[in-house]
Amino acid sequence: MESLPILSLVLWLPLAAAVIVILLQDRRAMFGVAVLGAALSLLLSVAVWAAFEPGAGMQFQESFAWLPALGIQYALGVDGISLLMVLLNTFLFFLCIIYAWATVNDRVKEYLVTMLLLEVGITGVFLALDFVLFYVFWELMLIPMYVLIGVWGGERRVYATIKFVLYTLFGSLLMLVAILALYFVHGNSTGTYTFDILQLTQGTYGEVFQLWAFVAFFLAFAIKVPMVPFHTWLPDAHVEAPTTGSVILAGILLKMGGYGFIRFSLPLFPDASQLAQTAVLTLSVIAIIYGALVALMQTDLKKLIAYSSVSHMGFVTLGIFSFTQQGLDGAMMQMFSHGLVTGALFLCVGQLYERTHDRLIANLGGLAHRWPVFAALFLYFSLASIGLPGLSGFVGEFMALVGAFATGVRVFGVLAVFGIILSAAYMLWMYWRVMLGSLKEAHRRLEDLSVLETAVLVALALVVIWAGVQPQAFIQIFTADTSGVMQAVNAAQVAGLVPK
């Protein structure tokens, strides 16, 4: 396995599939190649998981000089933190392309190529070990997502795409400035000019430099999460995106922000992270409660789930900036669970819209009478979103709360609990209005889920209960690596550089 460029295969197989799809004309053949490319990428990422040694650091590394005069490499590697995200990414793309087989009939070739390129971009973000390569993939992801929403989106898709790109590009450019500053500061102090992420992470930087570089990285990642008040692009993008676009947006794109905090912000800028702790925890609690309250007032199903994402992702940053092992592990589990559960909820809303051509809660009702399979699966994922014990949502939120209570400022944990209470309110109230009560006359002839639609949701449901009943199977992947991040942050306190 170590001699096989397996990470390059995971990364580039979807691109190879996209090239073949461009050459094909038959719809069935195009989908067959796309599904095969996504499936092989998923299987290889599972093979990496099977051969992965928890606690052994960065593994399966590949590198060769790209622009050696500038210290730029093509460098890939995976540890527990990135492996969990790669597994989530390849799994969701595989299911989305299968789901699209039955739902996408307009510009099929262009759609499949866009999805496969988007998979390459996001996978590259999690595998890159060179900052320039990382930035290339970070920006590359923007183009196919822009096309996906702009071409296959709703009536206000142009507005939503421009807003999404402007927000993300603003944060990205600030991050690029900070990356270049890291390159020169590290080079001036060591004599080695490099964009190698592992080398730069091992360096030490002055507190003033850390503060402004932390802010630049923070804005890029906070926009992606998205944290309040940088969240306003998200509801528009979700509402206008096609179903699979919403799944990828909520399921994996938002996780790039949380991953960035764990991979870069904490280990590179531990002093600045400590100084920013109270501010970030405050923003996290605001996001949790504000997102839940706004979700409670929504009349559109997609907007409700979009604002619930703002609330649930608040638990991710709450766990990360608790600076505790439980909180950081909880943030990782919350990102994984949110990707599965919210992705499934957007699939459910998409299936409902394709049958009723309506997302307004007031126009629905009694659908459980006609759709028993859909009703059962929709309830299952709604309960997972609430955090029902035994399902994945409970694990991440509980561990993040434990971390918040352990920070010494327990008010953050106390306030975050209200977000869980509110999530039960808006999800159960939504389910009652949409699925129970009297059935509308216009919906009496609607058919339940197809075999393919059911299979996609069941696949997600199985992983949700697996992560809920046996979370250690996933926690053991990354806990040794998150422990290393915690040591870097705590070292700032030990060194006395930050007031305790």
Description:
The protein contains 20 helices and 2 strands. The N and C termini lie far apart (45 Å). Strands 1-2 form a two-stranded antiparallel ribbon. The radius of gyration is 22 Å and the shape is globular. With 500 residues, it is mainly α. The model is unreliable at 496-500 (pLDDT under 50). Helix 13 (270-296) runs antiparallel to helix 14 (301-320) and helix 16 packs antiparallel against helix 18 (411-435). It has a domain at 148-494.
Average pLDDT, rounded to a whole number, is 90
Termini gap: 45 Å
Overall shape: globular
Largest sheet: 2 strands, antiparallel
Q: Please write the string of helix (H) and strand (E) elements.
A: HHEEHHHHHHHHHHHHHHHHHH
Count of separate DSSP helical elements: 20
Question: How much helical structure, as a percent, in the residues?
Answer: over 70%
Any low-confidence stretches, pLDDT <50, length ≥5?
496-500
Q: What percentage of amino acids are in beta strands?
A: under 5%
Strand order in space, largest sheet: 1-2
The count of strands amounts to 2
What is the rounded Rg?
22 Å
Given helix and strand content, the structural type is mainly alpha
